[in-house]
Amino acid sequence: MSTFAKRERLLLADLLETAGPDAPTLCEGWRTRDLAAHVVVRERRPDAAGGLLLKQLAPRLEKVMEEFTAKPYEELIQLIRTGPPRFSPFQLKQLDEASNTIEFYVHTEDVRRAQEDWAPRALDTVFQDALWSRLERTARLMGRSAPTGLVLRRPDGQTAVAHRGTPVVTVTGEPSELLLFLYGRQSAAKVELDGEEEAITRLHEAKALGI
């Protein structure tokens, strides 16, 4: 079984440690300390993490986030490295891969690409194929609120429809870059957009698409 989630977890922890607690990220309003707290709360406090999806739980999430953000930064980094607690469902390798591979990849790039001297990572074909597989399965969910029709295309010509509608914008790039684009990191994603100029502008300025 692949261990992409574990690899990205450790890389994220290393980057957060190197950057320090006050470095910028691509997450609007968050410094690295906030991002680290988010990762830990998501894994270790399911009673609060539900606030990421349910508005009713948002106050609870905000309170717990404040508590974890106040913890020593080094402690947060160590909690990320060691992973979820013993009885967490994230201990199951299949669930860890399904839930955390994209989570940790995106947040790793949130740290990397917020730096002035960042450069794209060289990702192997196996990892790119794994990301594409996830994109194919979730493209319509992720792109459901796109303001235009949206087609994702790999450089080799493989495509996935993320949103039906007109006018259509085709976004071309490696799966890793398409993923960042769908998660609202449009300004940092290395992709090419093809379509009507007005539609491209609307799509490029959109927030996270359905996430």
Briefly characterize the structure.
By secondary structure, the chain is α+β, with helices and mostly antiparallel strands. It is built from nine helices and four strands. The protein folds into two domains: 4-112, no CATH class; 125-204, 2-Layer Sandwich (Nonspecific Lipid-transfer Protein, Chain A), CATH 3.30.1050.20.
Structure, explained:
The protein has 9 helices and 4 strands; from the N terminus they run H-H-H-H-H-H-H-E-E-E-H-E-H. It has 211 residues and is an alpha+beta fold. A 4-stranded mixed sheet has the order 2-1-3-4. A hairpin with a 5-residue loop joins strand 1 (149-153) and strand 2.
Distinctive features:
52% helix, Maleyloyr_isom, four-stranded mixed β-sheet, 9 helices, 211 residues, single chain, 2 domains, DinB/YfiT-like, CHP03085
The secondary-structure class comes to alpha+beta
Number of domains: 2
Order of helices and strands: HHHHHHHEEEHEH
Specify Rg, calculated over alpha carbons. Answer: 17 Å
In helices, the fraction of residues equals 40-55%
The biggest sheet, with number of strands, parallel, antiparallel or mixed sense and barrel status, is:
4 strands, mixed
Assembly state here?
A: single chain
Read across the widest sheet, the strand sequence of neighbours is 2-1-3-4
Rounded to the nearest angstrom, the distance between the terminal CA atoms is 27 Å
Strand content: 5-15%
Low-pLDDT parts are none
List the total number of helices: 9
Global mean pLDDT: 90
**Can you count the beta strands?**
4
Query: Can you tell me the overall shape?
Result: globular
